[in-house]
Sequence to fold (102 residues):
Amino acid sequence: MRIEKHPILDYEGKGSMVFILVNGREIEAIEGEPIAAAILASGIKVFRHTPKLNSPRGVYCAIGRCTDCVMKVNGIPSIRTCITPVEPGMIIESQDNVHEQV
Fold:
């Protein structure tokens, strides 16, 4: 399942297929779609774990208001993946110490 229209991003679901690396795993994505959508479409539901209780987190609001979907993108920490568009060759990594960077 893919997002066809996003309420915040100017995204219409018509990009070309590209590859991104998520925690060392190459996945297919549509250029321009939210990173979180590509990750969910590949079957990954847990993006990070909370620092105190180690609780799993993924997409919650999907409009960039919370920090549940933050990950390290191309070496930059605390990127909200629900509103960040996919670019070819991105390297995305889980980030468990979010309270230190957000």
